[in-house]
Design the sequence.
């Protein structure tokens, strides 16, 4: 049962199929948008698939006793507040095409209205070809940084930095881009509410494609240039050694020839 502005409206019942209010809830119950699920003999849950702003109210669970031994009615209330969808995500990449070793900057602007006490989290992810999307880093909802398994060491080596600009602007920086950083980036913002026990419950999520980043490899080119230089130097050294050896050999040969001619003349 819903209690709203002092009025009570019947929603759904496990006992009576004619229980829903004909004006507000009968069509939603018939379509399956609102349903009741009996978990055990002592518990049941109310499910609303697509919650509406008009669903903000106090909900009353009533258990009229049908037991032959126990008598009495038991009730419990819970308040539902439906927060408007004001979450917006605007991503951008400062330089989507860069060379290996250059700095890659990924911006994500995530904002929402502060009419209710909610918390935000922002996640940067990377998708390569047909491979599953991999989370790089998440900030929030409790102002903590969570790094993806594939980027833990890189974050520890300061190869991955989070820059909080304020005003909903978040920046992820990779000071030295690598060829394997190439791919399609996604920014995901989530809105959370803190529950009574202190844990966070997600109420909204929005993802936006940031675009494709291409990284031109330069390490292989440098290696090839170094190889060519070394090969040229090696050839020059061989030629110099050969020339020195030839120059040293010819004077000795000329001296031997002169001695042979002198001995011939004496004879």
Sequence:
């Amino acid at each position: 049962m819903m209690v709203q502005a002092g009025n009570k409206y019947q929603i759904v019942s496990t006992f009576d199929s004619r229980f829903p209010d004909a004006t507000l809830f009968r069509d939603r119950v018939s379509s399956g948008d609102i349903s009741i699920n009996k978990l055990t003999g002592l518990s049941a849950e109310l499910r609303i698939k697509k919650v509406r702003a008009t669903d903000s109210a106090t909900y009353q669970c009533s258990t009229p006793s049908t037991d032959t031994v126990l008598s009495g009615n038991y009730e419990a209330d819970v308040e539902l507040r439906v927060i408007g969808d004001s979450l917006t995500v605007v991503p951008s990449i400062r330089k989507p095409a860069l060379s290996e070793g250059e700095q890659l900057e990924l911006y994500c602007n995530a904002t929402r209205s502060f009419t209710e006490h909610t918390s935000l989290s922002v996640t940067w992810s990377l998708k390569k070809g047909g491979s599953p999307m991999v989370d790089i880093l998440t900030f929030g909802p409790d102002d903590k940084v969570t790094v993806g398994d594939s980027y833990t060491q890189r974050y520890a080596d300061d190869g991955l930095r989070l820059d909080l600009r304020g005003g909903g602007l978040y920046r992820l920086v990779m000071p030295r881009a690598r060829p394997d950083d190439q791919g399609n980036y996604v920014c995901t913002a989530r809105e959370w509410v803190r529950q009574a026990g202190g844990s966070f419950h997600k109420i909204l999520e929005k993802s936006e494609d940031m675009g494709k980043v291409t990284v031109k490899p330069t390490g292989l080119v440098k290696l090839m240039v170094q190889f060519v230089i070394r090969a040229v130097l090696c050839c020059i050294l061989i030629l110099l050694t050969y020339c020195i050896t030839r120059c040293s050999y010819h004077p000795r040969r000329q001296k031997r020839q002169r001695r042979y001619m002198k001995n011939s003349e004496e004879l």
In short: The helical segments are 26-31, 152-156, 219-266. The chain has a mean pLDDT of 84.
